[in-house]
Amino acid sequence: MPRCRANKRDGSPCERIVGASQKLCYSHDAVRAAERRRNAAKGGRGRGSSELRGLKTLLQSLADDVLGGRVDRGDAAVVNQLLGTVIRAIEQERKERELVDIEERIAALEGTAKGDRWQA
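The structure assignment produced for this chain is given below.
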């Protein structure tokens, strides 16, 4: 069975099996980079959006409870700070996913460039 001709980030050969007419797997094929970006964006949007929607609902509920006198303002301030930390963690995860995507795109482009020089 044919295997991908590209190398992984650590320099070791990719071990994914490819179709008979293919030379590169889905992850290393520069032609499919846009498709990978779209798929990654879809995955990131779904999870982050639901988390953020839940946090917004919780914050609105907290605000309503403070204004209604059901929650102490000091307690609400602490909860708000903790939720702010969660929001920053979600943003950090989003940035990390974006960075991984960029690194994969660069690796694919470098692999394509190396392949072009090798064939010349």
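Interim note for the steering committee: The radius of gyration is 23 Å. Residues 73-119 form the longest helix (47 residues).
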